[in-house]
Amino acid sequence: MAKLYFYYAAMNAGKSTTLLQADFNYRERGMATMLWTAAHDDRSGSGQIGSRLGLTIEAHAYSPEVDLFGRVGEELKRREIHCVLVDEAQFLTRDQVLQLCRLCDEVNLPVLCYGLRTDFLGQLFEGSAALLAIADALVELKAVCECGRKATMNLRVDAEGHAVASGEQTEIGGNDRYVALCRRHFFERLRESEARQLSLKLARR
Question: Which of 18, 20, 114, 194 is deepest in the core (most CB within 10 A)?
Fold first, then answer.
């Protein structure tokens, strides 16, 4: 029986690189894949999956209204597919995660999802929450904090490197906009940011 996998990690842990390696492994064995990535993530170009190593590959783009079960089903009428790979899976809706489950359970098609677990405030993304709840297999990819411990959190920083403690959950930016940290240093930096903002407010009075 095919399985739904969720490979998750903090920023800069090589999630897209791991996806590209999995895709290569399938294709090297003569197996066809179908790749997906979030439509609004255009860091590597629209409909492109890119890694920090400089590798890129074309992919189908999904937005919240896309029916992944239907779209993959249409593709299966045209060609054989052995695996579906989804990058930036944190941006999936819960309904789309359920659609991916149907691909595994009803079509017997393996689905490999790669994404962040939490946002810059330590809150679960909708897609990640759904995948953590119902995926068949959860695989944590390792990132390293500046202190050498395992990094599990994603800190958003401003142009001066100060932690950002408010804003929209989704803000597409380069690797310099986010820092992967262990939980201890993540909350330390957030507290420092809050103290700095309070000091600036008091200085303006």
Answer: 114
> Which CATH number fits the domain that encloses residue 90?
3.40.50.300
Is the pLDDT at 170 greater than 70? The verdict is: no
* Total domains, the chain: 1
Q: List the domain range (segments joined by +) for residue 163.
A: 4-204
Contact yes or no for 92/62 (Cβ under 8 A):
yes
Range of weakest confidence among 38-47, 117-126, 156-165: 38-47
* Mean pLDDT, the chain, whole residue set: 90
CB atoms within 10 A of CB 61: 16
* Catalytic member of 74, 75, 88, 106: 88
Mean pLDDT score, 134-160: 94
Nearest to 158 by CA among 193, 201, 199: 193
d(C-alpha 51, C-alpha 122), whole Å: 24
Q: Which helix (H) or strand (E) holds 193?
A: helix 183-204
Look at 73 and 203; give whichever has higher pLDDT: 73
Within 10 angstroms of residue 166's Cβ, the number of other Cβ atoms is 10
Could you tell me the pTM of the whole model?
Answer: 0.88
3-class DSSP assignment, residue 78:
helix
Q: How far apart are CA 69 and CA 141, in angstroms?
A: 27
pLDDT at position 205 is 64
Q: How far is CA 104 from the centre of its chain?
A: 20
